[in-house]
Amino acid sequence: MGKLIDANVILRYILNDSQQSEAAKGVIEKGAYTIPEVIAEVVYVLNGVYHVARDEIAETLCTVLHEIDIEKFEAMVEALRLYGETNMDFVDCILIARHRILGDDVYSFDKQINKYID
Prior knowledge:
single chain, 3-stranded parallel sheet, mainly alpha, about 65% helix
């Protein structure tokens, strides 16, 4: 298994906007992995700081997830798909995706989440 990478590495890789971009690319090409919490941070930064459209975030990160390893890959891809197609928070999309893909029994008071898991 390669290096566990954080949001900054993924952002530099995606944005290709600094001298660190080449280092990020090298780490990813050698084999890297991340965790869902890091992807959530990347989504937050791309949307909130860089004002990237939701569908573009989803498409870009799905591509990245094919280049790095991540826990619960299928659920994360589904969460990104939902995020790109709805106005829900990404963490809510993860909960729905985990229910749909992994069979997690989600309990929420959020009506929008419940609409997708009922």
